Amino acid sequence: MPPIAMEQELSLSSDSEESVIADQELQEAFAKGSLKPGLNIVLEGRPKAFNNVDGLKRCLSEFQRNLSWVERLDITSPLETNVTGAASKNTVEKGSVDPEDDFKREMNFYHQAQASVLEALPRLHQFKIPTRRPDDYFAEMAKSDQQMQKIREKLKSKKEAMEKSEKAKQLRALRKYGKQVQIDVLQKRQKEKSTMLNAVKKYQKGLLDKLEFLEGEKSSEPQKKEGTERQPIKKGPNAKRRYKNQKFGFGGRKKGSKWNTKESYNDVSSFRASKAHNKGSGKAGKRGAKKRPGKKMRQKIKSRS
Predict the structure, then answer these.
(1) Cα(178)–Cα(249) distance, integer angstroms
(2) What is the b/e burial string over 129-154, where b = at least 16 CB atoms within 10 angstroms of the residue's CB?
(3) What does this protein do, in the record's words (predicted)?
(4) Nearest to 233 by CA among 209, 259, 266
(5) What is the DSSP letter of 223?
(6) Long-range contacts of residues 156-165, Cβ cutoff 8 Å, at least 24 apart
């Protein structure tokens, strides 16, 4: 028999023996009543916690180094002790910040870092350590340019959305104001129109003797309260009659008004001989004046000269 087949046969026999032993152990445990229905897993007990203070101190003393602050550059600046301008306005008490509010949490981180920087700068200047980066210094940012571009676009879109909403709010207010102004103008026009119609009706009935309301002028007479009407004029004809007399005449006989009388026939003071017989005017000597020569005659005279 080849050695490989022998090894396989030995491994199979060992596995079968182990399974038989496991089955016997399970049967004995079941007979004792230590097995319960369900999945049976052997649980190992948790190791008991032991606070080895001496060992912790020994480990700390092994890697602890007494370095100066210039080598460590560590600053601890809680928010409660900030007295700087920007951070003092935003100091908060412990537990008052909502952990779900990302904006406030980031602002607290920012103010704490700002206070730490303001505390560290004087100490660095005291040790004569430069704090300004050279102009030709190249540093790689913690965040990539693509990430910063996404943040910039997001902030820009948020700002544009706020501007659009503000502009829409202003347009709604202006539209509302313009509509109210338009309503006021229409009401004013309607009121002026009704006032004009009432004045025309009163004038037609002879209750008004002037047409000042057509010209938009204010009457020199004292105005009466609304609801009162002007009393009709009793002396002489009314305003309507006077207006018609002024336009069409004052009545009386019109027939034969242009006939000559003895006095008008004998009155020759307005007679002008120059006008009557075309004398003395520019047209007086028109009969004796020479006529203009014809076109051919004018051309001959022009060629001669």
Answers:
(1) 53
(2) eeeeeeeeeeeeeeeeeeeeeeeeee
(3) Required for the processing of the 27S pre-rRNA.
(4) 209
(5) P
(6) none
The rounded distance, in Å, linking the Cα atoms of 82 and 87 is 6
Residue 112, SS3 per DSSP: helix
- The pLDDT tens digits of the residues spanning 5-24 come to 555 555 555 566 666 667 77
The DSSP secondary structure of 48-106, one letter per residue, reads: PP---HHHHHHHHHHH-----HHHH------GGG--SHHHHTT---TT-S-TT-HHHHH
Render pLDDT for 88-125 as a digit per residue (tens, 0 to 9). 444 445 556 677 888 888 888 888 999 999 999 999 99
How big is the CA angle at 288 (ends 287 and 290), to the nearest 5 degrees?
105
Residue 90, token pair as written in the block:
């935003």
SS3 call for 116 = helix
How far apart (Å, rounded) are the C-alpha atoms in residues 1 and 5? Answer: 7
CA dist 203 and 240 (Å) reads: 8
Sign of CA dihedral 124, 128, 132, 136: negative
Q: How many CA atoms lie within 13 A of 270 on its CB side?
A: 4
- The closest of 140, 144, 122 to 131, measured between CA atoms, is 122
Centroid of chain to Cα 220:
51
Burial (CB count within 10 angstroms: exposed 0-12, middle 13-18, buried 19+), residue 98:
exposed
**pTM (2 decimals)?**
0.27
pLDDT mean for each 10 residues of the chain (305 residues): 51 62 74 67 72 91 86 79 44 60 86 91 91 76 82 90 91 88 89 86 75 56 52 70 79 73 84 71 57 89 84
Domain boundaries, the chain: 146-276
Tokens 């060629």: give the residue.
Answer: 303
pLDDT at 217: 47
DSSP secondary structure code for residue 217 in this structure: P
